[in-house]
Amino acid sequence: MTVRSTASTPDLSSKDPNWWRQAVIYQVYPRSFADADGDGLGDLRGVTQRLTHLAALGVDALWLSPFYPSELADGGYDVDDYRDVDPRLGTLDDFDELAAEAHRLGLKVIVDLVPNHTSHRHAWFREALAAGPGSAARDRYVFRDGRGAHGELPPTDWQSVFGGSAWQRVPDGQWYLHLFAPQQPDLNWENEQVRADFRTTLKFWCDRGVDGFRVDVAHALVKDLTEPLRDLGAPELSGEAALAQFAPGTHPFYDRDDVHEVYRDWRKILDAYTPPRTAVAEAWVPGPRRVLYARPDELGQAFNFEYLQTGWDAAELREVITGSLADARAAGASATWVLSNHDVVRHATRLVLPPDTDTDAWLLSGGRAPAVDPAAGLRRARAATLLMLALPGSAYLYQGEELGLPEVAGLPTEVLQDPIWEQTGHVRKGRDGCRVPLPWTTEGPSYGFGAGGAWLPQPPDFAAYAVQAQDGVAGSTLELYRTALRLRRKLLAGESLTWSDDVPAGVLRFDRSDGWRCVTNLSGTAVDLPAGEVLLSSAPLEDGRLGPDTTVWLGL
C-alpha cells in the first residue's frame, strides 16, 4: 500500500469536539459532483472549486464517498489502495488542498472507509492468487475449498448482496468470499495483519487532517469462519430478513458480537487526536443492535436507516422518531437522520411512490409504471426535509437534494454502470439513477458539471434544477435549504423534543426545548396552525392554514 508523509497535522484543537452531535453533513459522491478537468468524471479539484456552494448552503461538514484508486466495479467501493487517490480523480496533494480549503471555510471533512473488502486488483489479493492455497497471503482473505466430488460447488449457500453466490472460484480450484461484487473479495478480520493495516490507514488520514470517517458495511467485517462453515438454509434471504433467522449477534457474517472489538480498538486511535476524530457506522441492522456501534467507546454514531425506510405516514414516522431518539440516548450518542444517499431512490421521487411499489420493477419500467408527479414529489420532499432538520441529532444530506433533484429512472440500459445490473442478470437496474452528475448551470454540455459531457447522461429537465436556476430565487428548493440550515444553527440547543397529542389525524407536531415548534401535515386536507410566529414553511400557507404535505417551523 502507498504510504506518504504529510508535512504537519492540522491543529483542530480550538474546534468543538462534540460538533458532530447536531451537525449537518453533506455527502459528496466525487465522480458526480463537479469535473475540473473536463473528462466527464468528477474529481477532487472539482469538489474544491465548489466548496463555496457547501459553505453558502450552511452545512457543517462534507462526507466524501470513496476517491481511492479503483476499477469502479462498484462505484469506487472496490478499493485498490486505501492510502492514495485515484489518478482520474486527482492526487494526494489535491486531497490536501481540498481539506485545507474546507477547513478555511469552516467545513469538516469526513472520508469513506471500506474495511469489509478490497478490490481484486489490490496488491494483497494479487499476492494471494499467486501464493496459492494454504499461504499466509490467502489468510488475509476468506479462501475455502469447494464442496462436491471435485470441489466444484461453492463452500456454502451464502448469497451476494448484488445477486448470485457470494463465492467465486479461482483457477487453482479454491473459492473466495465476496459478499458484494466478485471484484470485491472479503477480508479476513481474524488476521492480525488486516487489523494492523487498517490502524495504519486510520492514522494516515487523521494525520492529513481528516475530521472523521464513515465506515462502509460496518456490521459485516467479522465472520464465523470455524469449520465447517454454516449454511444459511434460506439463501434467498438477505439483510435484516436474514438476521431475523438467528439469535442477535450469531449470524455467520452479519452483525456478529465480535465486530465490536474492532471498533473499540479504532476508538483508541481516534481519541488520541485533538479533538477526537468522529466516526459513523453504516450498519443495516435493527435499531437495538445498531446503537451498539454508536457507543462512545466505539464509533459514536450509526446511520438510522429505519427513518429512511419509513413511508409518508404520521403514525409510522412518530414511532420511528421516538424509538430512534430513545436508542441513541441509551447508547450515549445522538440520533442520525437521512432521506437520500448514493444507494437509494432519491426521496423527491421515492416519497410519492405507492407504498407497495417494487422499486426494482419501477426502475425497469423507466419510471413509468407507475408514473410519478414530480411537483407532488418535490412538495413532499421539501416537507420531509424540514421535518428531518427539526429533529434533534445529526442530519445527513445527499448531494443534489438541496436542488430537489428527482431520481433519473429513465437511464438507457446501455449506459448503466452499477454492477447490480449485470450481477442480477438484468433483473435489477441498480443505483445509477441517484448518481447522475449534478447540474450547476442551465446550459452547457453537462449543465456546468464540467467542460465536456458527463459519465452518466443528464436529462434535459435538469436545467430547471440547476444551482444557477435557483440561486437567489425566492421559494426555490435551494433557498429553502439555505434558510432552513441558517435557522437551524440558531434554533438548535437541546437534544430532546415533546410530542403534541391534540393534533388532527395525519399531523405530526412537536416542541423543541429550545423554544420552537415543528408541524408537518401528512394528511390530504389543510389544517389550522397552532399559535406561534411562522419562521419557515416548506410551501406557502393556504389562507393561514397548513396545506397537505407541508411542514412549518413556529417560534413560541
Topology of this structure?
Blueprint: E1 24-28, H1 44-49, H2 51-57, E2 61-64, H3 92-104, E3 108-113, H4 123-131, E4 143-144, E5 167-169, E6 175-177, H5 192-207, E7 212-215, H6 239-243, H7 259-270, E8 278-281, H8 287-293, E9 300-302, H9 305-309, H10 314-331, E10 336-338, H11 347-350, H12 359-364, H13 374-389, E11 394-398, H14 419-423, H15 462-465, H16 467-470, H17 477-491, E12 497-499, E13 507-512, E14 516-521, E15 533-537, E16 550-555
Parallel strand pairs: 1-2, 1-11, 2-3, 3-7, 7-8, 8-9, 10-11
Antiparallel strand pairs: 4-6, 5-6, 12-13, 13-14, 14-16, 15-16
Helix pairs in contact: 5-7, 8-10, 13-17
Describe what is shown at a glance.
By secondary structure, this protein is α/β, with parallel strands linked by helices. Helix content is 27%, strand content 12%.
The largest β sheet comes out as:
8 strands, parallel
What structural class results from the helix and strand content?
A: alpha/beta
Number of helices: 17
| CATH A-level architecture of the largest domain | Alpha-Beta Barrel
Keywords: Glycoprotein, Hydrolase
GO molecular function, one term: alpha-amylase activity
Organism: Streptomyces coelicolor (strain ATCC BAA-471 / A3(2) / M145)
Pfam families: Alpha-amylase
Give an overview of the whole structure.
The structure is a single chain. The protein is of the alpha/beta class and 556 residues long. It has three domains: 24-117 and 192-484, Glycosidases (TIM Barrel, Alpha-Beta Barrel), CATH 3.20.20.80; 123-177, Oligo-1,6-glucosidase, domain 2 (Alpha-Beta Complex); 494-555, Immunoglobulin-like (Sandwich). Helices cover 27% and strands 12% of the residues. It has 17 helices and 16 strands. It has helices spanning 44-49, 51-57, 92-104, 123-131, 192-207, 239-243, 259-270, 287-293, 305-309, 314-331, 347-350, 359-364, 374-389, 419-423, 462-465, 467-470, 477-491; strands spanning 24-28, 61-64, 108-113, 143-144, 167-169, 175-177, 212-215, 278-281, 300-302, 336-338, 394-398, 497-499, 507-512, 516-521, 533-537, 550-555. The chain has an eight-stranded parallel sheet. Strands 12-13-14-16-15 form a five-stranded antiparallel sheet. The termini are far apart. Residues 1-13 have low confidence and may be disordered. Residues 27-435 form the Glycosyl hydrolase family 13 catalytic domain. This is Sugar hydrolase. InterPro entries: GH (IPR017853), GH13_cat_dom (IPR006047), O16G_dom_2 (IPR045857).
